[in-house]
């Protein structure tokens, strides 16, 4: 089993501890590689995104740790960059000019009005009560409309570029499945999802298998039932815990690797000396 994690948060965004605490946990658990991926700055302040003013300190702190723990753990600097729309995403100059080892592209917000401000966003990743209110208010209570918006925005993110890894690619189902009318098996759902997978494969991007809620809720992103569709498209994958707490760095990893083996996956993508390589799953 690969002992690595490329999706993680620390106190530069909404992670609950100092970067060094995550590094110490990773070393204690014999990790080979560890990457930080703070929530990118946005055009507006939120509870969980980092501020632009903190970017230099973030880059410097990870660099300090990289040097301090050289020989014990490969440490990498990434970002989890929100796609908002064509004007604000990983392909804009601000992000492409940052000295990062990799970039994860994720959708948490869907703009439902302008300007780009928190009050004009449909948040798909928050509490279900807020999510349900959003579907009622902005999508006329039709979950299909939200799903369409989500996958349209996801495809636009991949088309815009500037990312290496697609983050929790079907996170819409976390809250979506609790809303009336949602179905992971309906044609209107799978058509959108498969078109997105086709595009990820066409653009040669990697996808993460996100274990953040695997032990807590029995959910993995992408959903277990779509793992074969990923393998069939030869989309390179890696297992990430999306940890916000040091002691959750390794959460769900073993279970995810067992699942991947059962679904016929043979390798994961790993950063080795700064380059992505395929590493066989033992
Ligand atoms: Zn995320
Ligand atoms: Zn995350």
TrEMBL record:
Keywords: Amino-acid biosynthesis, Coiled coil, Histidine biosynthesis, Hydrolase
Gene3D superfamilies (UniProt xref): Metal-dependent hydrolases
Domain PHP: 6-211
One Pfam family here: PHP
InterPro entries, per the entry: Histidinol_P_phosphatase_HisJ, PHP_dom, Pol/histidinol_Pase-like
Coiled coil stretches, renumbered: 48-75
Enzyme kind, highest EC tier: hydrolase
Its EC number(s): 3.1.3.15
Pathway membership: Amino-acid biosynthesis; L-histidine biosynthesis; L-histidine from 5-phospho-alpha-D-ribose 1-diphosphate: step 8/9
Reactions listed under catalytic activity: L-histidinol phosphate + H2O = L-histidinol + phosphate
Family, as annotated: Belongs to the PHP hydrolase family. HisK subfamily.
PANTHER family linked to this entry: HISTIDINOL PHOSPHATASE-RELATED (PTHR21039), HISTIDINOL-PHOSPHATASE (PTHR21039:SF0)
Name of the protein this chain belongs to: Histidinol-phosphatase
Phylogenetic classification of the source organism: Bacteria, Pseudomonadati, Bacteroidota, Bacteroidia, Bacteroidales
């Amino acid at each position: 089993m690969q002992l690595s994690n490329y999706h993680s948060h620390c106190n530069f965004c909404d992670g609950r501890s100092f970067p060094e605490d995550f590094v110490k946990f990773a070393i204690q658990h014999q990790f080979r590689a560890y990457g930080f991926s703070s929530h990118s700055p946005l055009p507006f302040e939120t509870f969980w995104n980092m501020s632009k003013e903190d970017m230099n300190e973030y880059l410097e702190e990870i660099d300090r740790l990289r040097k301090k723990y050289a020989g014990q753990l490969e440490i990498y600097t990434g970002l989890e960059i929100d796609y908002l729309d064509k004007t604000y995403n990983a392909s804009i100059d601000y992000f492409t000019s940052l000295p990062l080892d990799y970039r994860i592209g994720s959708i948490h917000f869907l703009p439902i009005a302008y300007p780009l401000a928190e009050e004009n966003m449909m948040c798909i990743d928050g509490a279900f009560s807020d999510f349900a209110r959003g579907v009622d208010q902005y999508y006329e209570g039709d979950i299909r409309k939200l799903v369409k918006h989500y996958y349209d925005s996801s495809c636009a993110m991949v088309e815009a570029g500037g990312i290496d890894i697609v983050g929790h690619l079907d996170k819409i189902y976390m809250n979506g499945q609790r809303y009336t009318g949602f179905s992971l098996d309906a044609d209107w759902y799978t058509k959108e999802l498969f078109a997105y997978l086709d595009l990820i494969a066409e653009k040669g991007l990697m996808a993460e298998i996100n274990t953040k809620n695997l032990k807590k809720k029995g959910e993995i992103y992408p959903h277990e039932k779509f793992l074969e569709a990923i393998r069939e498209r030869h989309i390179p994958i890696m297992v990430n815990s999306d940890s916000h707490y040091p002691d959750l760095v390794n959460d769900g990893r073993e279970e995810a690797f067992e699942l991947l083996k059962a679904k016929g996956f043979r390798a994961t993508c790993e950063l080795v000396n700064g380059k992505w390589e395929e590493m066989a799953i033992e």
